[in-house]
Amino acid sequence: MTFHTHHHEQVAEELYDIFESSFDEIFVTDAHGTVIMVNSACEQYYGLSKSDFVGKHVRELEEQGIFYPSASLQVIESKQALEIVQKTDKSRYLHVRARPIFYKNGKLKSVISYSRDLTDLMELSHQVDKMEQQIEFYKRELVQTQSDITGIIVHSDKMKKVFQFIERVSVVDTTILILGETGVGKSRIARLMHDRSSRKTKPYYEVNCAALPETLIEAELFGYEGGAFTGGLKQGKKGLIEKANCGTLFLDEVGELSLSAQSKLLHVLQEKKVRPIGGTKEIKLDIRIVAATNQPLEEMVKKGTFRRDLYYRLNVIPLYIPPLRERREEIIPLVHHFLTVFNERYNRNVEFSPKVFEAFLKGEWPGNIREIENMVERLVVTSERIVTIRDVPFLQQETYTSAHLSLHQKLEELECRLIQEAYEEFGSSYKVAEELGISQSSAIRKIQKYTRGIE
């Protein structure tokens, strides 16, 4: 029996060690929201001792502005696990995962929350970006285009696999076809492949086949001799294929090429030679072609709008880039990356509230990274210093002036909206009362009424 007791003590001690040494903050409340236990990571995140938490109700901690919003309260309300972004009073952002624990009879027993500090991760990601930019700048004087700011952020398993694949194929000269939706970062990845290849010191050119009219694309790609056609330069012009010789040419939206241009491109790939329009001499090439498309080329082949032989020639090594909604781990770091970039560019100091980060996390983003980049830029340029959920049009709730509601219901919905927005922005009942011109006891009552369990 002594041995058995000793064994239990040893197990309990080991479990406590695991609990204490976790990198994540572990925060446990009972079924009513009173804090039962926290680990030492909690002290680091909030700059408070464990005794400041244990025995307190989470709403009280939320009231004091120590963190906002409370994940535990939302779990108690919904009886379901959830993930949120939380802000602390030290202006740090935490990624919180909270789950309910039930007794065998199905009654709620407790809520366990695991929190990880995103702030350091975001800052680290930003520092790495800055260092890489400096290295690139010293390596070659490069005029940075706007698209160059798109961060390559790799936190998901899917993108780690993509990058392992890139490491393997960058060193060979095989033609690559990058597949993926608009805005997933295909041009950035093509550039990365060039920078990782033995051609990295040689020319790199890219052309968006959808951006040029059909009449110009061939002249742009293949070049032309003087007098080849009306409106051309007298002395002729070198095409991008010739300019990129010994280096890499990236053909974005290759599915947009006309059948005539497809035919000439096939010749370039097969013969490793290019003939300018109106010319008789062929120029020998040592070039790597990387192509990209967001179109279903196989279906275009069946319809006859894309040459089958060119499709096979391009599709030697296909590389699929998953859309952002399939790698949500990257959304928050991306948003933070763009927020930093645009704050620096426009000399602003805009911050996003936790609900805004959540809104980004939950969005579908059909335009992927480019859509997020544009959204963050717009918010930085047009917003006040702190962006709250009401500033984010894609997550606006349904308008509260629904025709079928009574005056009382309309007023209540309006009051609910005002209280939620004020509490999100100011984080304390005292400031909400001040802002809305009501007593603090009234503010506390309304906050409890309207902010319970909102996500």
What would you say this structure looks like, in words?
The chain is an alpha/beta fold. The chain has four domains: 117 residues, PAS domain (Beta-Lactamase, 2-Layer Sandwich), CATH 3.30.450.20; 169 residues, 3-Layer(aba) Sandwich (Rossmann fold); 69 residues, Helicase, Ruva Protein, domain 3 (Orthogonal Bundle), CATH 1.10.8; 44 residues. The protein contains 18 helices and 17 strands. The chain has a six-stranded antiparallel β-sheet. A five-stranded parallel β-sheet has the order 8-11-14-7-15. It has a two-stranded antiparallel sheet with strand order 9-10. Strand 12 and strand 13 form a beta hairpin. Helix 6 crosses helix 7, helix 16 packs across helix 17 and helix 16 packs across helix 18. The two termini are 50 Å apart. The relative contact order is 0.09.
Architecture (CATH level 2) name of the largest domain: 3-Layer(aba) Sandwich
Tally of structural domains: 4
Could you say what the CATH topology of the largest domain is called? Answer: Rossmann fold
Shape: elongated
Strand order of the largest sheet: 2-1-6-5-4-3
Number of strands: 17
Discrete helix count: 18
Structural class: alpha/beta
Helicity range:
40-55%
Span from first to last CA?
Answer: 50 Å
Beta fraction of the residues? 15-25%
Question: What is the CATH level 1 assignment of the largest domain?
Answer: Alpha Beta
